[in-house]
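P.,

For your records, the input lines for the assembly:
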Amino acid sequence: MTIWKLRNNNPLRKSYVTNNIKQNEFDALIRITVEMSKYLYPYIREIMKSKEDIEENTVIWNDFNKRFNELIKERFNINSMRVKKLLNQAENDEIIIKSLLTLSFCISNQGYQKLKNFLYDF
Amino acid sequence: MQNKLSFHQSSASLEIIGLPDYSNNENKDQISIISQWKLTIVDKPLIEGKFEHLGPIMNAFYIYSNLLIKNEIPIYKSKLIDIKADNLHMHNIVLKSSKPNVKPLVLKIGNSLLSDTINCFDQLNESPKVRIKKTYIPTKIPEKLRFGLDKKINFFNFFIPPFIAICSLILFSSSFIYFYSPFENIEKKELINPE
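Structure tokens returned:
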């Protein structure tokens, strides 16, 4: 329930609530993300791999991209310019690849610290 | 007899060969004096070298991966290794040999192999069995980038934007005084109907 509430701190969401996220809550979210990345690394890797060779089968990438867009439309405020950018087919490839790369670089034991630094650098 | 340690991640594996530093009373399975290392990436030529090459190569991969994520131009150049992005998904690596008359080794790897390689290096950095000078991993957060996540909204910051907005509105509307004067209109009406 607490995690569900914390998600609403994302200003791109439809259900955005202007709560100020606390440092320990932010850290907890990073830890959860890193643990999920470790668990999902084989899938993340396959998604990136399917996009590397255009001649190869890109079914995995297309499926992921379709689901990503569906979730954005369902849960995010599509009137926002930043969300429109996420849905723009010409621009969102780069955003998705960089996000996947960031997650894939943070699966080690020090992944929490690495992801935290990446996020502070954005 | 030399010790051998391997770090695996999907399609990449890193092998470290070396000896413990007995003068430091280390365990016999420890590696502190690295004599050789090998990086194997599936379907790519074997990359191997001496201890002095390992640090710069790991640094190159770490710095390049950071540039890639931070929306900066992803190019890394050094005496030993060049890495640049061909496009969003492919990376071009040129490994230059320290021996004369040896052609540089050119590799093209995708994002999946790049992340496998980085993860192998991470495992090496975190391994308690290998003692190496820790390579570049961004751990320090620059001061200017620290943002207060739970910072309360300052009273001054809360009121200053609407205050500036009102002031600018008054300034802007005061310029209309030059186009319309209510006193002139009253005088004109009095002249038309002098009662």
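Two observations worth noting. Residues 155-174 of chain B form the longest helix (20 residues). Strands of chain B lie at 3-9, 12-19, 33-41, 47-49, 75-77, 81-85, 90-95, 105-110.

Regards
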